[in-house]
Write a structure and sequence with these properties.
Strands 1, 2, 3, 4, 5, 6, 7 and 8 form an eight-stranded mixed beta sheet that branches. The protein is globular and about 55 Å long. It has helices spanning 6-25, 37-47, 69-77, 90-99, 136-153, 181-191, 214-220, and strands at residues 58-63, 81-87, 105-107, 119-124, 154-164, 178-179, 195-199, 206-212. By secondary structure, the chain is of the alpha/beta class. The longest helix has 20 residues, at 6-25. The termini are far apart. 37% of the residues lie in helices and 20% in strands. The chain has one domain (6-230): Rossmann fold (3-Layer(aba) Sandwich), CATH 3.40.50. The chain has seven helices and eight strands; from the N terminus they run ααβαβαββαββαββα. Strand 7 and strand 8 (206-212) form a beta hairpin.
């Protein structure tokens, strides 16, 4: 029997992890690795800042949509957003389809089989935190591959959040991934776009990465004086 590809091994571990959480907690933030709805909504608010400047209806696709909690947040705070999602865990996709029948949810791994669809914005919340038993170097490569896949799907921008590697060593758990903000900023700027934000201003031991496509930023700054910066 041939050896499984690293991506397959990562996906299998993630499915098992989230299925155990779902069985224990049901439709609850704890089933997607969060403590409570208050801190979950804090993360959502910082992800949603990637939409700043949007006045027309726009599409948002969440990779690792879990139980669709971000879709519920958008319905309350950004009603102009047309939300959809995808996940590796079939039980999550089934639950989302029942809860949010007006949205489309797909069972898929965007790094293994990139879809043909494109969205204005692509987001991810917390999915890159549980490294579990994956070696650190392999997980770091996975993080970069996921961000690259997100950017390829987005017409305007992407947003993802991470546990930060700065400080709080005494609170760290060995199964989780703590991302160096400088390393991910370097990857995003060199490989994706120079229009990048690192938002670590909130109360959590986390940061949010927001990456904007140059053409989208140019549209937000239509004055002729800015044209020279987009040549």
């Amino acid at each position: 029997m041939g050896r499984r590809k690293p991506g397959t091994r990562v996906a299998a571990g993630q499915r098992s992890y989230y299925r155990s959480l779902l069985e224990a907690h049901g439709d609850n933030p704890k089933s997607v690795g969060y403590n409570d709805a208050t801190t979950q909504n804090e993360r959502f608010a910082r992800l949603a800042r990637v939409f700043d400047g949007q006045v027309a209806p726009f599409t948002v696709h969440e990779i690792g949509c879990g139980l669709g909690h971000f879709g519920e947040y958008l319905a309350a705070h950004h009603p102009g957003a047309a939300y959809s999602g995808s996940d590796l865990v079939e039980e999550f996709v089934v639950a989302c389809r029942k809860k949010l029948p007006g949205s489309v949810f797909e069972l898929r791994d965007v790094t293994a089989e990139p879809p043909a669809e494109r969205y204005d914005f692509v987001t991810m919340s917390g999915t890159l935190n549980p490294r579990l038993e994956t070696p650190a170097a392999e997980w770091s490569a996975h993080v970069r591959a996921v961000l690259d896949a997100m950017y390829a799907l987005a017409r305007k921008g992407i947003a993802a959040n991470f546990l930060t590697s700065y400080g709080h060593e005494e609170k760290r758990r060995p199964e989780l991934h703590y991302q160096d903000p400088g390393e991910i900023l370097d990857h995003a700027t060199r490989s994706l776009s120079r229009h990048v934000e690192i938002d670590a201003a909130g109360p959590l031991y986390e940061f949010t990465l927001r990456v904007h496509r140059p053409e989208h930023v140019h549209a937000l700054y239509p004055a002729a004086e800015f044209d020279r910066y987009f040549d």
